[in-house]
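User: Hey, quick favor. My workstation is busy. Could you predict this chain's structure for me?
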Amino acid sequence: IWGQANINITTIGRSINRSTNITIYAVVDDNVNSSLLNNYVCKWFVDGTNLQNTTTNSSGVCSYTWSNGCSYSVGEHQINATIETDSNQRYDPLIKNSNTTITRKDALTINITYPQTANILQRGTSAALNATINDSCGIPPTDNFNATWQDETNATIASGNNTNTTTWDIANNYTLGSE
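Assistant: No problem, here it is.
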């Protein structure tokens, strides 16, 4: 006599920082009496790629720690746990897949490359403004962003969508200072 097994990911989808590892848990149990199944193989997939197989413990729980680092982009990723027929325990899967979504996020770092510190800019001229914008892996953003340049009084002097280069048209009556 064979039973039927279910798998259910118990880790709720959430957002994590790119550099943070996350452990995802799933429970495998008997479909009829909900008894927890020990030594059942769980296959773990991220975005459709099988990354690791783990085995349930005595509480019917299997887990996978996703060490994502820079090998995965920011954004949503589908995590899937799958079970198959276990002939040793005489179980076929009834519910053989369980999914959750993990959203990876990251902070951007801005490094002003021009004008350099102590450059002298003249009123009534245009000055190129340039900065490098990267995430923690050194990768420029691929999503839309707005770069806003401000002077020392926090007044906006220039901005640009999806660009790290823009021009500041310095007014003839711009207040002199160390901006």
